[in-house]
Amino acid sequence: MKHYIPVLTIAGSDSCGGAGIQADIKTISALGCYAASAITSITVQNTLGVTAVQSVEPDIVARQIRAVMDDIKPKAVKVGMVNDAATIRAIASVLREYAPDNLVVDTVMVATAGSRLMQEDALDTFRSELMPMATILTPNITEAEVLSGLEIKAADIAGVPANELEKVIDEAARIILESGCKSVLIKGGHLSGDKIDRLYGCETHEYRCQSVQTANTHGTGCTLSSAIASYLALGCQLTEAVGRAKDYVTRALKAGAEVNIGEGSGPVNHFFCPERQKLTQE
Q1: Is 246 a catalytic residue?
Q2: How many Å is the Cα radius of gyration of the chain?
Q3: Residue 220 a catalytic site member
Q4: Which of 55, 119, 220, 247 is the least buried, fewest Cβ under 10 Å from its Cβ?
């Protein structure tokens, strides 16, 4: 019997289609996997920003996840935008039951355009309930600061030597790993100088990123995390999954760099070179 390779994304809906559940489904599909979804919230947004967020009832979120886990049995799960503490607890409760082998948690707190996407009182619940189960967390610098309590950007702006800045990032990673997550990928795209993402945890690795000059960066974090989940589902080890996911995002950025849609930060081109649907024989 042939089977698809399913990946479940648990995230918010983006009405302009560039980020959130829409970006996840595009990414998972473009990489040849089968995308299933559980929607945590409905956002009112376009390329200029987010103007409203309506959470889905936590019980409905939990039931969406359970329905997929019971029937589709995903090879990897990605958690993206979760707006409130009650929903985080609902997600964590269901995922603890099923204990997926590959759980990618994208620490979605602020949108590319600057709008806050996680309620302030949800952070402690996120730390205690969801982070300990993660195979990998994928915070950007701002999110790493929130999770660690360290000031990374301030050190960068102050012009500290690269080796000293790296020590601050190393310490942030150490603090984040104390939550119990297996690995953390701290993305360095918001820092000056070389664009380096650093993977810490079970494996330590640096990924030097080619900078792409474009305003079309909406949904890059969602795209990266769902690409990592897809490559893990396809059987890649973590360091390879992250490397291949980063290459996919870079190529998607290049392909969409000169394409205009909307008046603000547009999306990447997820389908620059889509893979055929991959199948397994079981």
Answers
A1: no
A2: 18
A3: yes
A4: 247
